[in-house]
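Ticket #4471: structure export looks truncated?
Reporter: QA, pipeline team
Priority: medium

Steps to reproduce: submit the single chain below to the structure queue and open the exported record.
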Amino acid sequence: MDSVSIRVPYKNLRESEVELVSLDEPNHRIELNSKSSNGIHINKNVSDSSPSNSSNSHSHHQEKEPITMKRLVLSCMVAAGVQFGWALQLSLLTPYIQTLGIQHAFSSFIWLCGPITGLVVQPCVGIWSDRCYSKYGRRRPYIFFGSLMISVAVIIIGFSADIGYYLGDSKENCSTYRGTRTRAAIVFVIGFWMLDLANNTVQGPARALLADLAGPHQRNSANAIFCSWMAVGNILGFSSGASGKWLRWFPFLRTKACCEACGNLKGAFLVAVVFLTFCTLVTLYFAKEIPLARPVHRLSDSAPLLDDTRQSGISLSNSNSSQSLDGHISAASALGGGVNPHQDSEGKEDQIEKFNNSPSAVLVNLLTSMRHLPPAMHSVLLVMALSWLSWFPFFLFDTDWMGKEVYHGDPSGNSSEVKAYNEGVREGAFGLLLNSIVLGVCSFLIEPMCQRMGARLVWALSNFTVFACMAGIAIISMCSIREYNQGIQDVIHGSKAVRTAALVVFALLGFPLSITYSVPFSVTAELTADSGGGQGLAIGVLNLAIVIPQMVVSLGAGPWDALFGGGNVPAFVLASIFALGGGVIAFLKLPNLSSNSFQSSGFHFG
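Actual output as written to the record:
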């Protein structure tokens, strides 16, 4: 049996099994072999009509053997390491940049890299890893280098004050100096942006590796395991951020340029490097990948996954079939099996594929594919955008709000104000720990809720809950500021009632967050299920409704707060308005979906 591998874009094949018969060689047939993320591989099997050869032609159709549960669990462990660092990033870095002298109005700008890399880097890394021909596999090289970049980035962030000191920042002791440390801030921003880039480099291939390894009956279990590791990373990371004892355990971290807050940040991030290294090595050892073989001849499969009849491709229409009959052209020749004399050179095909895989082509592909989405997806995109316009201010300023509005501290104030601010930041990290625990518990309740109420009402309920919590944050802030202005004794650290209310709000937000991280993706999957293999691209378009609002908030939140005299309250008030709008539109415009089709997609941060 002679076999030639040919790849055809998804959109050209409608059935799960396709058989093409050569017109000039009736005993030759082309049949579907297997699907991959790159394309659909078709084997031209040369056989006669004898039963033995016919059975042999199907011998390569073997279902992927499931891996053991132990290997599946350990192959996902890198998710915990990445999430550990992400939790520290969420809880500590916005407050820390202000200790370097950067004003609150500009602190949100440093978060701009996250949505940019999520928009460009993650889709490109996903495509590049699909086509990686390394002998170590498709995903593991990206996981290794991405984890290495994360380790370098967090070390740069942790030691940014010391690096700035040696590059020429003020030589005054950090305990008394309250000015701007420009060089340290620049080093910090470089490390921060590198960290976002590295996070997006690891996350996509890590999830794709899980999909590659899991058998068809293990996918739900695999997703649950992956999310469980992320929950472990969240809990450990927020616990680490809430601890103020790193400097006590590692006193050598304190330097002339790095005081208490900086020393605790160093300690937490160094532990994050050790933990990530361990998790990455475990994943690389137990995730055994089969290297991807280089195809001899291939067609570019970077066309949109959603239907587009105007895109170039292989037409199997009746008119083309009749033309083949008249010209005695075999179907195999039409598919480019190496026998077409007019076929472009392989080098030219490689150049075209490299162009189609470039970041600009991927982004244009995402944007142009929006017009091919089902009509109901436009409402999904609108609600998703409003949801993230309400969520991202909380992610930016949660611990900073606790330090300033609740504990009445100031990262640039006197020693007592700095101490109060640091205590508030640690208390905010503890609130995020409670948030993560509630999120993990609620993730198991989403599926039965959607089956009983429907995904539309559950998503609307999520936005209404966010509206109530964001409005509650504004009310708590006003009560705390009023007590502070009235000079109530010991209010410098916030009254006990205000602190308790703030922690309750942090915990309650775990419920709608679990919905935001699962229901929109399940709704999108159902709406695009019959779009000719377009779910992957539809999820990519949904990602636009996440990262674009994040860019808007990163650019506008700081200046918006500055218009009202600084502080975090204006951003939370605006977030509550967006959440209310998202809830109303979700209730009125989202389609009614089958309640029996929902399956939770888990939860994650970032």
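Status: closed, not a bug. The export was complete when the record was re-opened. Leaving a note from the reviewer for reference: Strands lie at 5-8, 19-21, 28-35, 40-46.
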